[in-house]
Amino acid sequence: MTDTLSPLDAALRQPMMLGLFLPIQQGAWSPSLAPRETSWTFDYNARCTVMAENLGFDLVFGLAQWMGKGGYGGEMKFRENATDPLLVTAGLAAITKRILLVSTVHILYGWHPLHLAKFGATISEMSGGRWGLNMVTGYKKSEFEMFGLDQIEHDHRYVMADEFVTMMKRLWAEDENLTHHGQFYKMNDAFIAPKPAGAKCILVNASSSGAGLAYAVKHSDLIFVTSPAGANLDRACEALPAHTAKIKAAAKDMGRDVKILLNPHVICQETEEEAWAQYHSILNNADPVAAQNFYQTFTGGDQASWRGATKDDWTVGGNVHIVGTPAQVVDGFKRLQAAGIDGVQVNFYDFIPDLTFFGERVLPLMRQAGLRLDTPLAAAA
């Protein structure tokens, strides 16, 4: 293969992109007290990231969390401790060489485009062009109030975000001072250098609503989607084809080609019985207060995502559950690919042992099934 591919282009050549959803929040995705060693600390997440890179994963991804004391509550104080993904990816840039590093930023929580353009370009330089930004607007009233802000109406958030990201992209691409007096943001003779690799950073978005998807297909390279039908794999694979086709058609209408990713929670063991035993252990050991608060928060806002998920779905975590043997997990990935999914951003319950088993038993079968190339493609140095 050519050695002049950008880091993103190298990842996009894979038949199915493969990412790891980092557990940078206490309890990760699962408000359960079942035994595990998963940790929110930087050291633990650095170990996960290096392991994922060595296994050939294309990207790691961290979400952003703004919680009050006690997090989602319960005995475990679910997600009370949560590190910042922007700073975590900056740290990961120094200990990795190939894997893409994507961090989430709530761009409407007091940010200015010039700040984020500068920070993004800096991490791009630190990582050799491997940094990506998941541009979210936020939807929780409590989060806006943390920053002394009033909650912004749903569709209006995307009008503001469009101006924000347009200005940020111009700061990355243009080589002259930029003056802009827009509806929401102003700057006079603004400039950043160095520029990010490829004239912009990798842009990512997770959207489901009409306004959100219009914004995403305009700006994003990668779009995270949720299953409209909840976490059950059969129902998800029935509902996703129409959803993914709509997104790709909207991008094509704008002359763009986007890749669609989804985050499945993978529970994989040598036997199907062992896998389902782990699934039921997570549910049977749910922290009832944390699980209820987590479920109510994500189904009670004005966002369109997650509406089909049940409280049990939220307790296990992730968006679609893939439970079974290594062969059954790979079959699940193939079904998602047939439903229009270009990549999976997996999360686990006990990350390091589950990731180790995934690398040993699932990845070889993914290569045999044509979902992964034998070795990661080279990117430009």
From TrEMBL:
Among InterPro entries, the record links this protein to: Luciferase-like_dom, Luciferase-like_sf, SsuD_RutA_monooxygenase
Q: Which residues form the signal peptide?
A: none
GO MF entries? monooxygenase activity
Coiled coil ranges: none
Q: Where is the Luciferase-like domain?
A: 16-342
Source organism, top-level taxon: Bacteria
Q: Which UniProt keywords apply?
A: Flavoprotein, FMN, Monooxygenase, Oxidoreductase
Q: Extract the Gene3D superfamilies matched here.
A: Luciferase-like domain (3.20.20.30)
- Please report the name of this protein according to its UniProt entry: FMNH2-dependent dimethyl sulfone monooxygenase
Which lineage ranks, top first, belong to the organism behind this chain?
A: Bacteria, Pseudomonadati, Pseudomonadota, Alphaproteobacteria, Hyphomicrobiales
